[in-house]
Design a protein that fits this description.
Length: 158
């Protein structure tokens, strides 16, 4: 009985502890400022991948996501977003890299790394799976081939 009471008390606390995507202003690769708060107003789950032009595993992960975009669209209405954390010295390569890889998803730049800091991200690639309300469901650090299938399985439940 005591453990049941403790469980009932902890459930609401765990719901309060859910981490949401913070509202931070970032830039599109066209230079337009956008608030990340608008990302979860689209009523679809999100996959957000933090990357940099100089990070080979990041590019591999984003290419894998791109290869599966059509399959994912058939199975879930999820939206894929790539957010570069390049600094001003390498930022000129963001648009070029996205174009060379012909990614079919949106690409943004966290110019001052405000979003990266707000989410306490230290290693890239760093991928977030976010539900329709902006709650972060799962985090992946580093790229492991096949993770995209795990992500798809999570998205199907959302």
């Amino acid at each position: 009985m005591r453990s049941l009471l403790l469980t009932l008390l902890l459930i609401p606390m765990s719901l309060l502890a859910q981490e949401k995507l913070p509202a931070v202003v970032i830039k599109s690769i066209a230079g337009k400022e956008i608030n990340t708060e608008t990302f979860y107003n689209s009523d679809v789950p999100l996959v957000i991948s933090f990357w940099a032009t100089w990070c080979k595993p990041c590019l591999q992960e984003l290419d894998a996501f791109n290869d599966l975009t059509e399959t994912w669209k058939k199975e879930t209405p999820a939206r894929i977003i790539a957010i570069s954390i390049d600094d001003s010295r390498t930022a000129a390569g963001i648009k070029k890299t996205a174009g060379l890889h012909d990614w079919s998803f949106e690409v943004f730049w966290d110019q001052n790394q405000d979003l990266k800091r707000a989410l306490n991200i230290s290693l890239i690639p760093h991928t977030l799976v976010i539900d329709k309300k902006g709650v972060i469901i799962k985090r992946y650090t580093a790229y492991v081939p096949g993770n995209e299938e795990n992500i798809l399985a999570i998205l199907k439940t959302l």
